[in-house]
Design a protein that fits this description.
Helix content: 25-40%
Distance between the termini: 117 Å
Largest sheet: 5 strands, antiparallel
Strand order of the largest sheet: 4-3-7-6-5
Radius of gyration: 35 Å
Structural class: alpha+beta
Number of helices: 13
Oligomer: single chain
Number of strands: 7
Strand content: 5-15%
Number of domains: 2
CATH class of the largest domain: Alpha Beta
Amino acid sequence: MGDVTMGGVTMGTRTGTQTRARAEQRAEHRTRAAAGPGPGSGPAAGSGPEAGPGPGSGPEAGPRTVLRPGAEPGRPKAGTAARRRPELAVFLRSRRARVTPGDVGMPPGLRRRTPGLRREEVAQLSGVGVTWYTWLEQGRPINASAQVLDAVARTLRLDQPEREHLYHLAEVPFAAAPEALVQSVGPEIQGIIDALVPRPAVVYNSRYDILAANPVYRDLFITPVEACAPGPDNALWRLFTVREEDCPLMFRDKELPLMVATLRAAYGLHADEPVWEEFIRRLSAASPLFARLWETGDVAEPGRRVKVFRHATVGELRMTSTSLTINGMPECRIVVYTPDDEQTERRAALLRGGTTKNPAP
């Protein structure tokens, strides 16, 4: 085609075509920029927070934020994690603020405006990267291991409840260090179970040592003297070493496996402890039935169950057992037995005050 004259201005048609093409390209670029990066145009693999800090990515430069599909800048993902992360940030900042350099053997330095340790000092003392700890304290969605959280907890001098709280907020399973089992109770706990009469009540630790009991419980669980444990009074030892006809608990084939499984679940925290190993060894030697049940490896948690007792004076009793934890006494519980039916309610009334003894349960 030739030139075209419009309004006295002569232009080439090829030049007009090029101009329109450039305008369309600019419009397309603006549209893409407004829509954000498309598939495959995001940051390179390994550059997100999960991959850890890289060179030149320190907090001074500002950590990069990688948006997952469907995420929006400044808007956390819905759910429990999104609620916990801000709380984690507040918790770590408050714990850091209360630890001074002198507490950890560091000189205070000059021009210190931070009320406690600086982030980089916590990172250095904990053996983690500065950027990683910064992201953790900012509540960013990064992965944390139990070992790293333990190091941070030591640096921030967290006690046991605070350490457990940190794990919970960081969504890492918490395993408390095993403690020596409680072997006695104070007068307050004894007063509580005595006040439950006519309901049988007992305090067990996780090995079924009997730490305290009211008279009605002792009436139900009385066994011959030869069935008493060589160490602390123990319910399992009583039930497994007594003759079946003298056992106060009916349906042994159902009840005793549950008790051994409950013991086995607690044993996981105390494996290789001499006291526990000796108890398992001696009871296995004294009771082939216990040894067979222990070898099954079954585990169970304490809970609400219906147990049937036999009492030589009042007859059969169907009782519901309920376990209650005790603050300040780890691995201990109060177990209370309540009548499961009206007939048991009437018969249990005869045990009021524990005046009716069970001579041969």
